[in-house]
Design a protein that fits this description.
The complex is a heterodimer of chains A (60) and B (192). Chain A is an all-alpha fold and 60 residues long. Helices cover 73% and strands 0% of the residues of chain A. Chain B has nine helices and no strands. Chain B folds into two domains: 75 residues, Orthogonal Bundle (Rna Polymerase Sigma Factor, Chain: A); 82 residues, Winged helix-like DNA-binding domain superfamily/Winged helix DNA-binding domain (Arc Repressor Mutant, subunit A), CATH 1.10.10. The chains are: A mainly alpha (60), B mainly alpha (192). At the A-B interface, helix 1 and helix 3 of A face helix 3, helix 6 and helix 9 of B.
Chain lengths: 60, 192
């Protein structure tokens, strides 16, 4: 079973490289039972969206 | 209606300068990048109907100037200077996780209320910039190459001379630091 610390590492890396099948399965299971990491994953998506917006000059 | 380019340039110049400074962390180099962008903008003949579309166009020119400067300074971010950033980042991990690697009760991520609404507020972007500026310099450089300039990790390795796995570690630290900063400085006040 992944620790939250390991899960956050994978949630970062999934934005930079394709995860292996085993990594994806482990992460899916962890996020399913862990509210903190499930929120963290959503926040990683928010960060990426914010960066896209900021990097393309789309800020108010 | 055609924009008054000169006055729009003056109005947008501080935004461009902040964007360049965040990424280059060198006032002189940032000033150069913005000057070159303004020159290119003044000689361009494209037409723009709104300040927003003009800004998007200017930022895309500026991004390319920043990429040129980063390529020219290539390998300045060495593995050794990155390890100097590490101590502070490890302290962040210690403050978030217990010894078994689980979230401490005080650090467990909560829900962020309506991020899209935050994106519409200028104040959010000021906080976002401050949080980026708060990251260790080399960590921030690698993160912005990835997220703003669109480099793949392979290219970042090539330009900075760090290994792929080190690159992933640095990006992870940057995201973790930025998330913690945004949570504390912005979303904690707006949490549902």
């Amino acid at each position: 079973m992944l620790s939250c610390k390991q899960a956050t590492e994978l949630m970062s890396q999934e934005q930079d490289r394709p995860l292996s099948l085993a990594e994806r399965a482990g992460l899916r299971l962890h996020v399913w039972i862990c509210t903190g990491c499930s929120n963290y994953r959503r926040q990683m998506a928010v960060l990426r969206a914010a960066c896209r917006r900021f990097g393309s000059g789309g800020t108010p | 209606m055609e924009l008054d380019r000169q006055s729009e340039l003056n109005a947008l110049r501080p935004d461009l300068l902040r964007f360049a400074r965040l990424q280059l962390r060198d006032a002189g180099a940032a000033e150069d990048a913005v000057q070159e962008t303004l020159l290119a903008a003044l000689t361009g003949s494209d037409r723009f109907e709104s300040r927003a579309s003009y800004k998007t166009w200017l930022i895309s020119i500026l991004r390319n100037k920043i990429i040129d400067i980063i390529r020219a300074q290539s390998r300045e971010v060495s593995a050794t200077s990155l390890s100097a950033d590490e101590a502070g980042d490890d302290r962040l991990a210690e403050s978030l996780f217990d010894r078994r690697g689980h979230w401490k009760d005080t650090a467990r991520p909560g829900r962020w209320a309506d991020p899209e609404a935050s994106f519409e507020q200028q104040q959010f972007w000021r906080v976002f910039e401050a949080c980026l500026d708060h990251l260790p310099e080399k960590t921030a450089r690698v993160f912005m190459m990835r997220e703003f300039l669109g480099f793949e990790t392979g290219e970042i390795c090539k330009e900075t001379g760090i290994s792929t796995s080190n690159c992933w570690v640095v990006l992870h630290r940057a995201r973790m630091g930025l998330r913690a900063c945004l949570e504390e400085s912005w979303f904690a006040g707006a949490k549902t």
